[in-house]
Design goal:
The chain is about 5% helix and about 35% strand. By secondary structure, it is mainly β. It has one domain: Immunoglobulin-like, CATH 2.60.40.790. Strands 3-4-11-10 form a four-stranded antiparallel beta sheet, with no helix packed on it. The protein has a three-stranded antiparallel beta sheet with strand order 5-6-9. The longest helix has 9 residues.
């Protein structure tokens, strides 16, 4: 959850905000937790935004999508190896691991939209390790009407 409001999507401190948003995932209760940061593409269309994230090896049951506030979406989850594996440099039963690059553990991403969105009609699908989220823009609010007192 971000403690710093996002005023503009082109704000020059965006990498700092991302670091602050993800800082809590680096260590919990003094115990180091493996984390990784999935990559996302974000597109703006006339009536919606679309997010496409790479989540290889992640089951859709292990992904949660929530709203932190009316314009900020939070995506988090976890993945685990489905097999026992020694760490790099470790040898078990005659097998030495030279490199272990596949990421496992927890992940968390937060995205703030520059304009109001329609949370009620968001759709999310996941296929072949790609999470697709469609976020409709909120319809323009009606113009304020002046009320005449009678």
């Amino acid at each position: 959850m971000s403690l710093i409001p996002r005023l503009d999507s082109d704000f020059t401190f965006a990498p700092l905000f991302r670091f602050l948003d993800e800082f809590s995932t680096y260590s919990r209760d003094g115990v180091d937790t493996e984390t990784f940061t999935p990559k996302f593409d974000i597109h703006e269309h006339k009536h919606s935004y679309s997010l496409h994230g790479e989540l290889p090896g992640v089951e859709k049951k292990d992904v949660e999508i929530e709203w932190n506030d009316p314009q900020t979406i939070h995506i988090h989850g976890k993945t685990e190896k489905s097999y026992e594996s020694p760490k790099e440099g470790e040898e078990i039963e005659g097998t030495k691991i030279w490199r272990s690059e596949r990421k496992t553990g927890e992940f968390s991403r937060t995205f703030a939209f520059p304009k109001p969105v329609d949370q009620e009609h968001v759709k999310a699908t996941m296929k072949n390790g790609i999470l697709n989220i469609s976020v409709p823009k909120a319809k323009k609010q009606q113009e304020q009407k002046k009320i005449t007192i009678s």
